[in-house]
Write a structure and sequence with these properties.
single chain; alpha/beta; TIM Barrel; eight-stranded parallel beta barrel; two-stranded antiparallel sheet; 12 helices; 15% strand
Length: 285
């Protein structure tokens, strides 16, 4: 993730600028430029390749330059097998997407698997439509997240929630995403912001980063060709200002820790992966 250096004070910036020779690059300006040192990819983007050739796809992503991956299924592989393939390719997998089925045996089993692979975050990616019709449903989810996060911590894991667009559609006068942020315990429940879905819903990713500093530990970097259709495109080929989002993420009280590129339906998944990596690798923010 981005370096955690803060910007130098404005006064210091002014002093350096005044004293430097004309045309010379400011030390301050150099210090304030950041680049991502670890770029990740959500493996849902390359799921067809993963299903056909699990180890070969991970090897190809490592060759492109990715250092981190986020899982969305293991295609029948054991935890030991998954971990061995990651290690062989110099990859880490800080997060995995896991459906939350309450806090019973299925959740415990999923947490055991995640811990064995070596994940840090157990990330819930979705709430079924039938379970999000009323405001009471959302209050229940917030309470369930707190309980599920406690169980995750008992397994040495951290809990996070990944958004889509439906969390921003008011229910009985309330915005569900705001309710989740308000009613979940910051010490237990973190958030993985999908900046595309926030944008597509008509909300502002930067406003959420400012208002809830420290809650967003991960970002999904998915690009939009713009309204009205918001077609998904390779990262850097669309309209989302990733530099300003990453800058704010780096300046949070607890800076964003991981970023993952994603595309739900890329025509050529590995081409998408390469193009998106190349863009982010060169991006200064």
């Amino acid at each position: 993730m981005p370096t955690r250096r803060s910007f130098l004070a404005t006064l210091g910036a002014f002093g350096v600028a005044v004293c430097r020779p004309q045309g010379a690059a400011s030390v301050l300006e150099k210090a304030s430029r950041r680049r991502l040192d670890r770029i990740g990819i959500q493996l849902y983007s390359v799921r067809t390749e993963m299903e056909r050739d699990f180890p070969g796809t991970l090897a190809r992503l490592a060759e492109i330059g990715y250092k981190e991956v986020e899982f969305a299924g293991y295609f029948g592989r054991s935890a030991a097998d998954v971990r061995a393939i990651l290690d062989r390719n110099g990859l880490s997998a800080p997060s995995t997407h896991i459906g939350l089925s309450g806090t019973g045996p299925d959740w415990e089993k999923a947490l055991d698997f995640a811990a064995s692979v070596g994940h840090t975050f157990a990330t819930v990616p979705w709430i079924d439509e039938k379970d999000r019709k009323t405001l009471a449903d959302w209050h229940r989810h917030a309470a369930d997240f707190n309980k599920a996060a406690e169980r995750a911590r008992a397994h040495g894991l951290r809990f996070a929630y990944h958004n889509h667009n439906f969390e921003f559609k008011p229910v009985e006068g309330a915005v569900p995403y705001d309710l989740l942020l308000r009613e979940t315990d910051p010490a237990l429940v973190s958030f993985e912001m999908d900046v595309y879905w926030v944008t597509e819903a008509g909300a502002d990713p930067k406003a959420y980063l400012r208002q809830h500093s420290g809650r967003f530990v991960m970002l999904h970097l998915k690009d939009s060709a713009g309204p009205p259709k918001h077609e998904q495109v390779d990262v850097g080929k669309g309209t989302i200002d990733f530099a300003s989002i990453l800058r704010l993420g780096a300046e949070q009280k607890n800076p964003v820790e991981h970023v993952f590129v994603e595309h739900d339906q890329p025509p050529q998944p590995l081409v998408f992966a390469k193009n998106s990596f190349d863009y982010l690798k060169s991006l200064e923010y």
